[in-house]
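User: My instructor asked us to take a sequence, write out its structure as C-alpha cells, and then describe one feature of it. I'm not sure where to start. Here is the sequence I was given:
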Amino acid sequence: MSAERFPTETDEEREAALDAASRAVRLGRLVVLPTDTVYGVGADAFDPDAVARLLAAKGRGREMPPPVLVGTKGTLEALATRVPSYVAPLVEAFWPGALTLVCHQQPSLQWDLGETRGTVAIRMPDHAVARELLDRTGPLAVSSANLSGLPAALDAAGAIEMLGESVAVVVDGGTSPGGVPSTIVDATGERPRLLRLGAIAVADLDAALAEHGTTVQVEPDDDQPGEQGEPEAAPTDA
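Assistant: Let's start with the prediction itself. The C-alpha cells for your sequence are:
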C-alpha cells in the first residue's frame, strides 16, 4: 500500500482531504495529519487492530502506547475519570494547544491502546484541519509521524518518506507551525507532575495554576525540551 497525498490549500482540496482521511479511519487504516506541534500518524482509538498497525508502522511496542487527540474540551470527561480540579485551569489556558494531559482512563472504554496501566494521554490540538478531522472521526490515537528513534516529520514529505508504505492517506497541511512536541503533564496525582517539557514552559503552566494554589512538580533533568521523536504516551509507571 502506498499513501495517497491530499493538499488542503483550497476549500475543495480541504474537503476532499478530510473526506478521504475520515473514510480511511473508518476502514481501520492509518492516516497522517498535520497538528500544531509536529505531524502525526493516527488511527481510530477504538479499533485495536488499527492501533496495533500504528505501533507496528513506527517500530514501537505496546509498552509505548500512543496518546489520543480530541476535537473538543468536553471529550476529556468522556475519556478520563477521577480528574483532579487543577486540570480545569490547565485545559482552559492551553486547550486547544500543545499540552498533553495523562489522566486515569474511564474503565468502561472499549479500546486497547497498549500497556497504559489504566491511563490515557489526551490532547486537543490547536490546528483547524486536525480538529475538523477529529470532528468527523472522533478521538484518534495519534503518535508523532516518524519511525521510532528518528525526528518527527515537520511536513507531509517527511512523513511519507518514513511512513508512506504503512499509511493510506496523508493530509498535507504545509509545514508544521510548531515544530516542537507537546509538553506532557501527569494529572493522575494530587499535584500535576511534568513528564516531558515541550512547547509549553513550566512557568506558563505554573501561572495557569496560580489561582488553584499549586505548581507543577518537576523532577531533576526534566527542565529541558524533549526530542521531537519522543513518544507522546501515557507513562508505564503511572
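For the description part of your assignment, you could build on this observation: The first helix runs from residue 11 to 26. Try explaining in your own words what that tells you about the chain.
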